[in-house]
Amino acid sequence: MLRTIISRLGQGIIVVFCLLAITFTAVRLMPGDPFSGEKSHAEHIVQKNKERFQLDKPIPQQFVIYLAALSKGEMGFSATKEQPVSKIIKHSFPASFILGICGMLIAICIGIPAGIISALKKNSIIDYGTMVVAMIGISIPSFVIGPILAGQLATRIPFLKVAGWGDPFDWFLPALTLGLGTGAYLARITRGGMLEVLNQDYIRTAHAKGVSQTSIIIKHAIRGGIIPAIAFIGPAFAALITGSFIIETIFQVPGMGLHFVNATLERDYFLLQGVVILFGSLIVLANLAADIALVFLNPRLRNANA
Fold it and tell me: Has residue 158 been placed in a domain?
């Protein structure tokens, strides 16, 4: 088990490094620089700023300098925000993280029960209706669901706000917008996993021995049936945190999404790189957590790693 974790971490570090190297090179090959935006600067000021941020050096040398600083915990200085990147992330990441957690909890509470019920009621009206709703949830993008929820719920429920991030009630609408699509995927994945388990020989044997349906479902079917859902939850959780740019913009959530978009438009190299490192690391850790959970749920994986 420990060997598996170390191996996954090693692979994750390589992935994050490659992601950083590609991003680092790509943003510097884009036309312009952080000082060639809408505000015009004198040539000598632009050159001085480039020297200040060491952007006047060749790209490979800049990369080595950046890695050396990163090894000391320094993520650089935002040229447009005039703040350390670590400070910007410290103040904005908690909102994105909370939004991702709330969205994932909503998705789990909706998707897994819906998938289990749909599998148990296979080929019934409940099954067909659940899967139709799930397909609709998958098909409609979040930037369409968001304004609809804001218009329909916020106008009818007094304590729900269309925008803001002051109290937990402000988290509900953006989290629900994120969670509905992921919950729809979870419902379909859980249904497939449950149907596969319910058709296994040991389930038929349990039925033949007279074991109650409730006991079979709780003790055997659910544990095996949600394994595909657990494998999906890890990457999905990271995707909710890293892919909530549009939702954060719609509901004015002070998270990382807005910083990422602005850093791209303003060519803010260091801020963009910092966000990429953070999001890449989150995806790696989420996948690692999913792998560990699968090992505990699946005895065959435990025996393979023994």
Answer: yes
140 located within any domain: yes
Whose CA is closest to 180, among 110, 127, 129? 110
Residue 119 lies in a domain: yes
Domain of residue 228: give its range.
92-304
Q: What is the CATH number of the domain that holds 299?
A: 1.10.3720.10
Residue 4 to residue 12: CA distance in whole angstroms: 12
* Nearest residue to 76 via CA among 53, 48, 46, 51: 53
Q: What is the pLDDT of residues 242-270, one digit of tens each?
A: 767 778 878 888 888 777 877 887 788 88
β-pair type (83-84, 77-78): antiparallel
298 phi-psi bin (left φ>0, alpha ψ -120 to 50, beta other): beta
Question: Which of 49-53, 112-116, 136-140 has the largest mean confidence?
Answer: 112-116
Predicted local distance difference test score (pLDDT) of residue 39: 54
pTM of the predicted model as reported, rounded to 2 decimal places: 0.79
The torsion angles phi and psi of 83, rounded to 5 degrees, stand at -145, 155
Q: With respect to residue 240, please indicate whether it lies within any of the assigned structural domains.
A: yes
Does residue 111 surpass a pLDDT of 80? yes
Q: How many domains does the chain have?
A: 1
Q: Kindly state the DSSP code that residue 33 receives in the 8-state scheme.
A: -
